Amino acid sequence: MPGPDASTAAWLVSDTGLATVAAATAALDAGEDELRLAARLTGQVPDPARRAAALEAAACRRRARTRWADADRMLFTRAALEQASDPAVAAHRARSLLARAVGEGSAWDGTVLDLAAGVGGDAIALARAAAHLGGSVTAVDTDPARLRLLAHNAEVAGVRVDTRCADALTVASGPATVCHADPGRRVGQRRVRRLSQHQPSVPALLTAHRDALQLAVALSPGVEPTDPDLPAGLEVEYIQVEGALVEATVWMAGTGSDTSDAGTSATGGASPATRRATLLADDGSEVAGLPPAPAEELSVGEVGSWLVEVAPAAIRARQHDRLGAAIGARRVARNRALLTCDTAPPASPWYRAWPVVAVLPGRAKAVRRWLRERAPAGQTGQAARTGQAGRTGQAGRTGQAGDVNHLEGGVEVVLHGVDADPTRLWRELGRPARGPHGIRLVFLRRDHDTVAVACAAVTGGWPGTLGP
Fold first, then answer.
1. Structural domain of 20
2. Do residues 81 and 61 touch, judged by C-beta distance below 8 A?
3. What's the pTM value of the predicted model, to 2 decimals?
């Protein structure tokens, strides 16, 4: 759905437009139906484009509240909000970009270009970071309406951002300029897969600004360093906020080198970029980072006394085996990033570890029978308690009598490589009480079979101190 035109955007940022958006937001908060609200606004805002833009801005404000502190004063379009970087990631990337720019002997002249700027999430973060260093930010976009909304949002945030309506591929940068870009990942309603299909094209961006002092490009966390649209010698940073893998950033330091042979080494083979992983707290502060390092490969073995789930950012950075080697872990399957070990691993922000209670056949009937056997008297068929083993052996072996009971905290089901309908599986398990504080049932597809690993719940979550 296209965003507002320049005239409609100018009305949105006016006193009348802002008052209309605020009133629409309050009405939606009070539970008024959106269709009824639209009909009621017809008399107040006769122009259908303005009315639609105000309703969209109101709906976006409500969605943005979970992440944006100033959401109730900002203006978004639906497409721009979907594309906007998480504020925690934007702040981290801005700090990192300018830290790289002001290194020893830096030629930075204080200029920061935010290319394909949208409605300003990254531009605001860049302006806050640049202000402490005497730098200035210019937001570049081909859509004058978005730049209108960006200027309003920057004013709300209390930062200065200059705007320029121009093509990100033709605006001039250079060896004294720092660039940031967040290219669009949709064409119409379709999400694009190839980097060359982004708007603007990622390979074209890298070529157009290859001489920039620093260039950071925000991308989906699904990007692979071996992507043929990426030139050699780059770095891909996978960024996780709390427990969610949110974005990837491609970093390029300007060297003036030719990027026309993107993704190809001198010998004609794939030349992947290096990978790093970063964990952020909800406020954007960095909890931990894994710098680029050679990949390791763990052996595959049976499920031990602990099941270890590595942070998604570390998995995308191909560092899960290296983390596992440091704690004496092994893989549970050749194509699974899930690890296991025989002794309690030390606490780490890079993984969560669960003590294994039982390893069962991966059939719903077998697991249901196991849950029923451990239900306390009077709760047959309702999972409520179970035993925790000090050590678990092969599939089918369970904890000993007299162990600690756990099912009263509920049951949580997780699928690893298992193609199953979660709702149907829950019914087949006898609809046990749900909850994250009792038993975690991990249905796991291994190289030769499927098992269900019952684990005792532990407290904690990314990015805090995790482990036993």
1. 6-66
2. no
3. 0.86
